[in-house]
Write the structure tokens for this entry.
Amino acid sequence: ALKRLGSWFEYLKKNGVYDNTRIIIVADHGADIETAVFSEEDSAGSSAAPLLPVKREAFNPLLMVKDFYMDSPLITDSTFMTNADVPTLAMKNIIQNPINPFTGNPVTDVIKKTPLRITTSTKWMPNEHHKNTFNIRPGEWYFVHNNIFDAKNWQKIEQ
């Protein structure tokens, strides 16, 4: 997939539209594989990190952004981001004070100033949930904030 993206970027450059295009590529979740980004101690659970039923890498999806007229080398930025940041990134410097047309709420990333709630539920199929709500068991909720690579920033929610 990454090779095909490279081909697409080359196509955009060849046709003179790469520079004046904002490109955002985002995955919906990471993978439960060992990447060595998190230490083995953290993955196994330590006093600083709660034991998770899946590897923390599962919560680290791909998010790539190339802004308009960006002419710099590729950089890795470990700023705490979520998929919910995509609308803010997409509208940055295009729409002033954007509003979600369905909720009437401002489109902003201010929610990240508090820890975000995530679930470790392994129920992926829609038929495993209720019609309008997810069927998440107690003990499958965690708070995470700031740098996800720091085990101290993960906290199990006791219910």
About this structure: The first strand starts at residue 23 and ends at 26. The chain is about 15% helix and 10% strand.
